[in-house]
Design goal:
The termini are far apart. The protein has 178 residues and is of the alpha+beta class. The mean pLDDT is 83. The protein has helices at residues 9-16, 29-36, 40-51, 97-126, 131-141, 148-160, and strands at 4-6, 27-28, 58-61, 72-75, 85-87, 128-130, 164-166, 173-176. The strands form three sheets. Strands 2-4-3 form a three-stranded antiparallel β-sheet. Strands 6-8-7 form a three-stranded antiparallel β-sheet. The chain has a two-stranded parallel ribbon with strand order 1-5. Pfam families: Cullin_AB, Cullin_Nedd8.
């Protein structure tokens, strides 16, 4: 019978490739890639959601969990779900270690202004403070975890920009410059 599929844009584009085919006809991965223009990573995710997910609208040959460029696909003629409206969930790709590290760096770059502001606020209030006391007070004020090495870089940056200076007699003491 008739079914209403709730799919993403990429899933819809891939499914449209099967519109004019007979049920048993197969389409290669390369043909789908060429016809749709979807990049490999996104196409892999899309085909995996349509052929390997909970709701399998397509059949993948050879069977398996991962999609490769040598695979072929056809409409699943045995597709039978009792509901009229069926949501085909997209599969989320895991973030690679490299992407995760890049994201963390970008987040800290966004937060560095917050760290700078907190450092200046503490020093403006205290006028003179040891490096260790400053770091511990900063860590207690921040709402996120910050690496001590990153905090040290921010302190050095404030010294270069002449917000802070080291004490001439004791270099571990920092002074606020008005």
């Amino acid at each position: 019978g008739n079914k209403e599929l709730v799919v993403s844009l990429f899933q819809a584009v891939v499914l449209l490739q099967f519109n004019d085919l007979k049920l048993k006809e197969r389409i290669s991965y390369e043909h789908i890639k060429e016809q749709t223009g979807i990049e490999k990573k996104e196409l892999d995710r899309t085909l995996q959601s349509l052929a390997c997910g909970k709701v399998r609208v397509l059949k993948k040959h050879p069977k398996g969990r991962d999609v490769s460029p040598t695979d072929t696909f056809n409409v699943d003629e045995m597709f039978d779900v009792k509901f009229f409206r069926i949501k085909v969930n997209a599969i989320q790709m895991k973030e690679t270690l490299e992407e995760n590290q890049e994201t963390n760096e970008r987040v800290f770059l966004d937060r560095q202004y917050q760290v700078d502001a907190a450092l200046v606020r503490i020093m403006k209030m205290r006028k003179k403070l040891s490096h260790n006391e400053l770091v511990s007070e900063l860590l207690s004020q921040l709402k996120f975890k910050a690496q001590v090495s990153d905090i040290k870089k921010r302190i050095e940056s404030l010294i270069e920009r002449e917000y802070l200076e080291r004490d001439t007699e004791d270099p571990s003491i920092l002074k606020y410059l008005a």
